[in-house]
Design brief:
Strand content: 5-15%
Number of helices: 18
Radius of gyration: 23 Å
Largest sheet: 7 strands, mixed
């Protein structure tokens, strides 16, 4: 019976692929019409977008009174993407049987084709769409069969959820698998980081405890630093170490060229910086590994070896509408211009960080080449180990309930930093307002210690 179902599935998929290839020729064409907007009206609307800056807030669903400097955590999407999201949701509800059983696989192939072009990889079947980077990491790490003594390499700035995934692997191996942490403290130049990493690899090369896989951020979360992965990847490949890139913050923030990177695995969240709804991420797996990688939610299509596309296509019933909105998000970016988006947001992050650090009398954490759209500025807090300062609930309450704003506060290298995200709907006045808020908070925290604040507001 299982064989019969497989035969039926392959026949249906062959028919789907044949219809795509017949329409597009020998190569699937990735054009602006790969997924037509259901009402056909969005493209003309996009040509009338306002200028970048606060006027662009009209295109988003943001509360006009809320100061958002934390776009990097959860993202948001423009109204044009929301329209497509709602239209696909309605399409599914009108005839869910036709949508799931007949149309969905074809439509997802089109979405993956758009993403393949955007990420510069030849075969859309090397990509699967997953809800988030954490889910993709679980799929990869929990699919791998480790041998006793093997190690997992990661930076000390690894994202917290990924650290827990690695811990899970170690715990379930009953000590047979261990981790190896490369400690990095910013500020540090890229040259010094690469040199230190190369030395670290050489010093930790052991035949009895080989490094099986390295998890490297493309852009770390806190602090928000672009890591020169194109210089680290060759060092790892020279030693036959599998390379897994956590690109959670990458797509939409930095160009990604999967052909040039030539890594084993790459996962990136689309909802953070690409302007898609939350619950959209893309995972790349090199063909030679696809037979061993299964989704973290095992469903009825599980096989060994894995049928990569089939297993990840259906992990259970979900709303696929967010996935369908991906092409419109890319179209929105094309209309604005990728270069314009990147230039504006990078400059805003650099200038905004310089402004806030000047007001606070502190410093920016990153070198300019390490800044994408996020910048970290030191907060002049005297007692960096004050339990209140280290309590996330304090910052959430203070920022949200008192000041109606948000930015990400964290501790790194014995200092307290605030990570601010630049976006096309922000301008420098947002950073001026943030500097005033940070000044007030720092003064109050320092005065609690009967200490005169060193925060002096100087917006000259």
């Amino acid at each position: 019976m299982a064989i019969l179902f497989d035969v039926i599935w392959y026949i249906s998929i062959f028919g789907t692929y044949f219809s795509i290839w017949s329409a597009a020729g020998d190569n699937v064409s990735v054009s602006d019409e790969t997924i037509p907007v259901p009402d056909g009206g969005r493209s003309s609307d996009l040509k009338m977008l306002p200028a970048l800056g606060r006027a662009m807030r009209e295109e988003f669903l943001l509360d006009p009174e809320f100061l958002q400097l934390n776009h990097g955590s959860y993202g948001t999407y423009p109204k044009t993407v929301q329209t497509v999201l709602q239209e696909y949701a309605l399409r599914a509800e009108r005839n869910v049987e036709r949508w799931v059983r007949r149309d969905l696989f074809t439509e997802l192939f089109k979405v993956r084709s758009v993403l393949a072009s955007y990420l510069n990889t030849d075969d859309p079947d090397d990509l699967v769409i997953v809800p988030n980077t954490t889910g993709g990491m679980n799929a990869i790490f929990r699919s791998m069969i480790f041998s006793p003594g093997e190690r997992i390499l990661h930076f000390s700035t690894v994202y917290g959820a990924m650290r827990k995934v690695i811990q899970y692997v170690m715990d379930t191996s009953k000590g047979a698998v261990t981790n190896l942490q490369f400690n990095v403290t910013y500020p540090i130049t890229n040259d010094d980081l690469v040199e230190s990493f190369a030395k670290f690899l050489n010093e930790n090369e052991r035949a009895d405890a080989p490094i099986r896989i390295a998890l490297i951020d493309h852009i770390s979360s806190v602090p928000g630093v672009i890591i020169p992965i194109e210089r680290l990847i060759p060092l790892l490949k020279e030693k036959n170490i599998l390379v897994l890139i956590d690109g959670a913050h990458a797509i939409g923030q930095v160009p990604i060229d999967l052909k040039a990177l030539d890594v084993d695995f790459y996962i990136t969240n689309c909802y953070k910086w690409l302007y898609t709804p939350r619950g959209t991420a893309v995972m790349y797996v090199k063909k030679e590994h696809q037979g061993s990688i299964h989704p973290s939610s095992i469903s009825e299509d599980y096989r060994q070896p894995s049928n990569f596309q089939k297993e990840f296509f259906w992990t259970g019933t979900i709303d696929f509408s967010p996935y369908m909105s991906l092409p419109m998000a890319i179209e929105f970016r094309k209309t604005l211009g990728e270069d314009l988006i990147r230039t504006y947001m990078h400059k805003l992050a650099v200038d905004g960080g310089a402004l806030v650090s000047k007001v606070l009398g502190t410093r920016v954490l990153q070198m300019e080449e390490q800044i994408g759209y996020m910048v970290d500025v030191e907060l002049p807090i005297r007692d960096v180990d004050d339990p209140q300062v280290l309590d996330p609930e304090y910052w959430q309450t203070t920022f949200l309930d008192r000041f109606n704003m948000y930015a990400a506060v964290h501790k790194h290298g014995g200092k307290i930093w605030v990570r601010m995200s630049a976006q096309i709907y922000n301008d420098l006045t947002d950073y001026e307002k943030a500097a005033e808020i940070f000044t007030t908070i720092c003064n109050e925290l320092n005065e609690k210690l009967n200490d005169k604040s060193i925060c002096t507001l100087t917006l000259d």
